[in-house]
Amino acid sequence: MLKLAIFGSGSGTNCQAIINAVEAGTLNAEIKCILSDVEDAVILERARKHNIPAICFNCAPFKTKLDGEGERVVLQTLKEHDVDFIALAGFMRIVKEGLLNAYAGRIVNIHPSLLPSFPGLDSGKQAFDYGVKITGCTVHFVDSGIDTGAIINQRMITIEDSDTLASMMDKLHAQEHIAYPEALQWIADRRTTLK
Ligand code: GAR
Questions:
Q1: What local confidence, expressed as pLDDT, does residue 63 receive?
Q2: What is the pTM assigned to this prediction?
Q3: Which of 14, 82, 106, 120 is the one with CA 20 to 30 A from 138?
Q4: 175 with 157: CB under 8 angstroms?
Q5: Domains of the chain
Q6: Which one-letter DSSP state was computed for residue 45?
Q7: Burial of residue 53, with CB atoms counted within 10 A of its CB: 0-12 exposed, 13-18 middle, 19 or more buried
Q8: Ligand 1 center to residue 4 CA distance, Å?
């Protein structure tokens, strides 16, 4: 069984999909805590609603990464909650060496494009603006690069001429909500390991 922590900065719909899979018994995991760098993030409300510890931490003075004192606090929190695996779900900070080393091969992320295409920020918009006809989502292990870790699962959508960015993102999110719990269950089953 995975002893999971989920990190997010926003609405937490992927986190909700993971909670639902655990509650439905299709994902063999226990969600030990849900963490956010954003105090009023909806993801923390989701945690509280499901009686999962909801923890907000401060990344200051860094604007884009989890490092220094914030990282130290997070590591201590993970230890206190007996976490052995981390799922990033809309977490908008770059994870640095301290966390990567402490959880080597045990941090995964979901990204809204078919990597290696469109890494980084606003990937859905990047793909839409480029005019691709197929895009999707990727669940991957996290390494020290930006969205470069080994791929675990991908699901695709087609972009029709009638699609707007919003309608494309709705389709993409629906696939994310399938891909992420599925990938985590593969890991829980030890069907996927870091190469
Ligand atoms: C998801 O689409 C996820 O792929 C993306 O943020 C969204 C979070 O939505 N992640 C990234 O862009 C990471 N670079 P959610 O909070 O509703 O799960």
A1: 87
A2: 0.95
A3: 82
A4: yes
A5: 2-188 (3.40.50.170)
A6: H
A7: middle
A8: 18
